[in-house]
Amino acid sequence: MNTRQAYWRDLADFSLYLRDKASKEIVDASNDEIKSYLKDLGDKMHVKGQNTAQIATRTVARRLSALRQFYRYLVSENIRKDDPTSAIESPKQGRTLPKTLSESEVSNLIKAAAIGGGADSLRLVCLLEMLYATGLRVSELVGLPLSSINDDRQFLMVEGKGGRERMVPLSEPAQKSLEKYLDVRQQFVASDDKGTQGQWLFPSRTSESGHLTRQRFAQLLKDLADTAGIDADRVSPHILRHAFATHLLNNGADLRAVQKMLGHADIATTQIYTHIVGEKAKKTVEEKHPLGQKVVGA
């Protein structure tokens, strides 16, 4: 319903533009008139400062998509013989870089989670250390069966998207936090549990699934961010997954290795993190390298 209303607004906007500029009905628009409309739309958004360049590009692309569907319908119904949008290319949209955290911010989160030292604290530290060590998707992490841990607890067997299994190594800090958590894990299992909770690495007495939910873990992270002095909007399980990948590449990890650990089927998905690393390197050169400084009066 929302999509339909958005398309209707887009068509209505172009119809008003066409009547004002050419005294024509939308059914009779030409290729040049559509291109002129899209150009004017982009220019106005920039001049008025309504949006960033990226949002303006997305808006123009959406308007063009609405017009394409409209004119294809007219052609299919023999109302028009030609589609005036067929030769118009969509504007190229830059891919949004994933949000991430610095290494020190992740460290502060883990330190904040350790405050108190009780069972809840040990579980939260374990969740953080394991997520940061493996880059698991949040659904993979909270849904880990107890059997996913191998005997020496140096690796996890993870079933990801499409049922694909992968083996992910655990860092030494993650192994230590796991050992401490396992000593108190039984406290999260109800005494009358019939197996629904006991099979999970992170059991829960209150969830229907028997294990900690994604929503609950996300909320725990938001609360933890406040304690660590970090904007809660910048902290989520998925952002920690981004931090895992970004920090590995920052420290020289192989892209293929990161792809396997993240469970990406296509390396193109993993390559987005190289842009983050590249931007960081570029900024460092501009700020720190003597040749990167602007010369006064140049």
Automatic annotation (TrEMBL):
Residue intervals of the Tyr recombinase domain: 96-286
Gene Ontology molecular functions: DNA binding
Taxonomy, superkingdom: Bacteria
Biological process annotations from GO: DNA integration; DNA recombination
Keywords on record: DNA integration, DNA recombination, DNA-binding
Every Core-binding (CB) domain range: 1-75
Protein name according to UniProt: Phage integrase family protein
